[in-house]
Amino acid sequence: MPAPRDPAQGSGSTHTAAPSSPALRRANGAPPDGLARHAVTMAAGAVALGITAMAWIIRPRLPFGRSEGGDAAGANGKGVDSTATTATAARNRGFGAIGEPAAATRCRNLPDGVRVYRDVPYVRGGTDLQRLDLYVNPVPRAPLVVWVHGGGWHSGSKEWLPIRFLLGHGFSVASLDYRLSDTCVFPAPVQDCKAAIRFLRASADQFGLYALRIGMAGDAAGGYLVSLIGTSGGVLDFDKGDHLGYSSRVQAVCSIGGPTNLGLFGYSKPGDPFTKFLGARIQDCPGTIEAASPLTYVTRDDPPFLLIHGSQDDLVPVAHSQALAAALREAGCNVTLEVIEGAGHSIPAGQLEDTLVPFFHKTLAE
């Protein structure tokens, strides 16, 4: 039975169908069978994906509500983040498709007036990973962009914020952690990201946010998550927990080097990132593969997408972004595919500013 769908501003109802069921669909009619429909498009890349599947191993808390920056800044009046990275520096961090020094610490020298809230829990009674950092821009009605880190679903941290340049262009930014595959499997990370979106809308007044229109961006595994969130708007199986009266829909999505159909990696072994994320080997869980694919949920009302991918990405081949772009175009959606010639899986953050800033300005403007 098709899963119920929320109205534009959210719904308090839920559906209890198994998340791995192929029937996990929107209530206004199941979308075309994305995986089957694009099998021909993806077939050329399937062999390469299978070969590289096993290579895709990507690599102290502050009190709730404590603000840094803005009034807490130094004499020059600039928002300065002086928090040192301590316990989390020992985490197996790694990162996804954005190439930056692994030793990087939290953002420094923030634009004037930016207020920073650290380690804000977005799930009541949640884990230490169900928290976010929030950078609130003083610009009136500043659009909000939520960053989701990569790391193969088993590593990574919200502390690494490669899209911090958006703060200098009038955006507010949230960077979130989510439960990793050492403690949970799909769809838990998706549910976490959607819970964070609902929390931000429910808490907008508390933090001085403008959260009516929200964009998302992520790299590698994070790019996969934001793509799935973008196409699954209204699929209530992914909306669990608090603030169900608020919508988890987003109004713009940017995926950088993100996979779109894990089945095309062909196979996985016990203990590798795919098996840990899915809860089973790729070859053993076709129903979960379908439920976990952004292609499955593509419909005409999906938000604008910006897909960025290196032409020489040997970990997540560009065929992934090409397939999602084709599905979105076929459905009549607004999608831009930017293939960076010669780039691999790691794309320097400096190459993104000129593309992301106009994309989010255009898509999040009222």
CATH architecture: 3-Layer(aba) Sandwich
Sequence stretches where pLDDT stays below 50 over 5 or more residues: 1-34, 36-95, 99-105
SSE string, helices as H and strands as E? HHEEEEEEHHEHEHHEHEEH
Rg, Cα atoms, Å = 19 Å
Terminal CA distance: 36 Å
User: What is the level 1 CATH name?
Assistant: Alpha Beta
Structure notes:
By secondary structure, this protein is of the alpha/beta class. The protein has one domain (34-82, 107-364): Rossmann fold (3-Layer(aba) Sandwich), CATH 3.40.50.1820. It has 9 helices and 11 strands. The chain has helices spanning 34-37, 39-52, 188-202, 204-207, 221-231, 273-278, 286-291, 319-330, 353-364, and strands spanning 67-68, 98-99, 115-121, 131-136, 144-148, 172-176, 214-219, 252-256, 305-310, 335-340, 347-348. A 9-stranded mixed β-sheet has the order 1-3-4-6-5-7-8-9-10, with helices on both faces. The chain starts with 33 loop residues before the first helix and ends with a helix.
Concise synopsis of the structure shown:
By secondary structure, the chain is an alpha/beta fold. It has helices spanning about 35, 40-50, 190-200, 205, 220-230, 275-280, 285-290, 320-330, 355-365, and strands spanning about 65-70, 100, 115-120, 130-135, 145-150, 170-175, 215-220, 250-255, 305-310, 335-340, 345-350.
